[in-house]
Amino acid sequence: MINGNVATDKEKVFIFDTTLRDGEQSPGASMNMQEKFRLAQQLVKLQVDVIEAGFPIASVGDFDCVKNIADNIRGVQVAGLARAGQKDIDRAWEALKKGENPRIHTFLATSDIHLQHKLRMSREQMLELAVASVQHAAKYTSNVEFSAEDASRSELDFVCRVFEAVIAAGATTVNFPDTTGYALPEEFGAKIAYLMENTANIHKAVVSVHCHNDLGLAVANSLAAIKAGARQVETTLNGIGERAGNTAMEEVVMALRTRADQVNVRTDIATEFIHASSRMVSSITGIMVQPNKAIVGANAFAHESGIHQDGILKERTTYEIMNPCDIGLTSGNLVLGKHSGRHALKERVKALGYDNLTDDELNRVFHRFKGLADVKKEMFDEDLEAILLDEIVRIPETYQLLSLGAMSGNKTMPTSAVKLLVEGKEVQDAGLGVGPIDSAFRTIAKLTGTTSKLLYFAVSSITGGTDAQGEVMVRVEDEGKIVIGQGADPDIITASAKAYLNALNRLVYLKKERNK
Predict the structure, then answer these.
(1) Which residues contact 315 (CB under 8 A, 6 or more apart)?
(2) What span, in angstroms and rounded, lies between the C-alpha atoms of 440 and 94?
(3) Beta-sheet strands, E only, within 267-312
(4) pLDDT at residue number 249
(5) Phi, psi of 483 (to 5 degrees)
(6) What is the rounded CA–CA span in Å between residue 516 and residue 501?
(7) What tens digit of pLDDT does each residue of 277-295 get?
(8) Which element (helix H / strand E) includes 389?
(9) 415, 383, 392: which is closest to 495 by C-alpha?
(10) In this structure, are residues 250 and 296 in contact, taking their beta carbons and an 8 Å threshold?
């Protein structure tokens, strides 16, 4: 057994995680260096094989993040994305060179649509540039991946020709992306099978796939590719990514594990960290997981139907094909109270998968925990996890909430009084609004001087009960830049203010990064 996966004699499927690169391209999902590093540490615990840390030439900030991860993260290959061409590849290597078996991942489109309308080059020119780029990357490292962008809409014989040439030039992984999420599973599997049969030196490289979810088929296409011989899948946690997102890592991994009777492959993913990793991504990006999301959704292991509940009570496997514990999901039983000490908290934090907290982080979590325990009668793992994610995954706070008071009612003008710490200086004001949340947002906007526009507001409950913490997500736009903010608190108005301030802090951070 390996981490609960079956039979070590099965062929391995490598998990290439691109949450930090392609996942970050979700609207509003930008991450800072600290957030990316924290998530990279979590990916190591998950035992992914490759972390694509970013696109080094895209910006100074992206370069610094990739370099920081490559310099300090061990036990995993760190990859950097580079367009075909010496300048991109040189920049990628500069960021990656101190990493453990670093990978240069270079790409160039092969479809006639891209060649004619985007690249404006012939097939022969494309092939020449691809080979030259791989040869240049191979001067730095033997770990080179080449991706044929928009491969699923490319002429297959040409892709075979390109793959044969880049493998001969030094590529050790060749990636066949469904860039636009256009393929159907049977069709996509057949394309991979054709590549395996018609690329003379394909046995010298790992065949990889990178599927997008525009038609909701990314996972299905990835599984079809594995069945046809692909042995690397490029994924993101929670399936985040641009447009409709990417192949969800947790879904592919658990499908291969749960249906081990039908597949002769395995992964090395430590599945018990899936739930904590999903929550961390959600907190960092502010993108909430839909309740009915497979594997990690709040309803994934919930049973409301009386028939289902009766079956579960008699025998879990009547309606559950997976054990919630396999993904690190606890039952939500009461674990701690206001009289619990620091040691008990530390042990529970470790059990939830957060075993690398610094003393300062643990102190902050303990302080927040005690404050919440005084308010709530019952403390659940989800409450503690909300505190952990809020305290240990932080962006620099230009604006901090010091106090908030709100008044509302059916015969009362909604009013909020807000005190903030703005760049170290206390400021306060009060204002009116349509409701208490609107009045709080208007007052915060006045105190911070923001001209941003609130695009979206959503609220959910972290646990059950009238004393449950509320979790709020907002989407805010300013000067064409969209960010997401998230906040949690037993008081929904306070949670809303925290989410709004989190979004404003993200805007400030992005502006500073752009100026840098």
Answers:
(1) none
(2) 47
(3) none
(4) 98
(5) -130, 160
(6) 22
(7) 998 898 788 787 888 899 9
(8) helix 381-392
(9) 383
(10) yes
CA distances from 391 to 31, 321, 382, 403 (A): 15, 35, 14, 18
* pTM for the full predicted model: 0.82
Q: Taking Cα atoms as reference points, which of 211, 268, 197 lies closest to residue 43?
A: 268
Residue identified by tokens 């309803």 is: 299
User: What is each CA distance from 332 to 158, 283, 345, 379, 463, in whole angstroms?
Assistant: 54, 19, 15, 9, 9
509 residue type, one letter = Y
Q: CA 320, CA 113: separation in Å to the nearest integer? A: 45
Summarize pLDDT for 405-438 with one digit per residue, the tens.
Answer: 999 988 889 999 999 999 989 999 999 999 999 9
CA distance linking residue 61 with residue 214, whole number of Å? 29
- The residue behind tokens 């993904």 is 327
Collapsing DSSP to helix, strand or coil, 458 comes out as strand
> Could you tell me whether strands 412-422 and 425-432 are parallel, antiparallel, or unpaired per DSSP bridges?
antiparallel
Q: Tell which phi-psi region holds residue 158, choosing left (phi > 0), alpha (psi between -120 and 50) or beta.
A: alpha
How far, in Å, CA of 243 to CA of 426, rounded? 40
What span, in angstroms and rounded, lies between the C-alpha atoms of 408 and 97?
A: 58
Q: Tell me the two tokens of residue 176.
A: 């066949």
Q: What is the CA radius of gyration of the chain?
A: 24
**Which residue is associated with the tokens 């009238």?**
466
CB 30 within 8 A of CB 483: yes
Q: What is the DSSP letter of 453?
A: E
